[in-house]
């Protein structure tokens, strides 16, 4: 296998876009490789892009390799199937260091140490909510519902105006056909809690959907405006067309787009609807107010007051979910738990008032127990995870 192919497969693994076949291909190469140093170099290249603030240690390398090979945690001694370098693991973050700052807490990655076992570790030996995966349903114009997570790859789904193909485990594509006089019909892609999915629309626009999100869109785009409707969260890379503006309707707000990449977070249980522009141009319209959004800025609609404010944004934080991680920069615990509840499909209960803010970066492919363990290390919050229910204690 070429070095470029190996790098591509490892990068896909880190981004959670590996198909089952690709993961098997990568695992087979790891099993057959006779050079631990080469394995380490491959992982270091991917890690440098994925976790630039943390060193990749031999322990973390071993854990990543075991995850690729599909090994599970064991209660007794581990017998290595290949070399000692590859020990059992279920967690790809380095150890964390905690420092008090301005009444809050910063959590960042550092060289591994052996942290004290937090309370959550005792409660989750058997009850561990796994991370989300590529799950979605596609509702056709006739009302038929197709479960995409169980539909085989390269399956062609019937469409009157388009060719719809599920190309891999997390992507469905639309290819517009030349049908004279055809009128668009509407499809809805819905992602449940604990899911994510991607779609390439008929005009070439790419959309990443986060957990508990849905997108309603025409199966083809005739002349005129391109319009879709979103609930939840999505990242868009819009195919440019000056003659066909791209409109995203979110509740009573509308975004006008011209060849742009941006993120929209519009969950009904959030206080704000946030639109973050990474490149290009977006005009945010709410009732009679239209505001142009500059690159690197975020428009926030306050659901309670109806006011829209524009501020400079942390674009890395806005699209962290799309890049396979949680990134919290002074985020209140209740907002954090909303994100975790959607991705891990867990119920959150509060056994007291918790108002702490957190700074942390957590891989989304860590399981729920591991994510909670990082937050617990601050000493300002504690959790009990029982099945899919998390109780938060001050």
From TrEMBL:
The keyword Transmembrane applies. InterPro entries: FecR (IPR006860), FecR_C (IPR032508), Ferrdict_sens_TM (IPR012373). Residues 325-392 form the Protein FecR C-terminal domain. The chain crosses the membrane at residues 91-108. Residues 188-282 form the FecR protein domain. It comes from the Bacteria. Coiled coil: none annotated. Keywords: Membrane, Transmembrane, Transmembrane helix. This is FecR domain-containing protein. It comes from Chitinophaga oryzae.
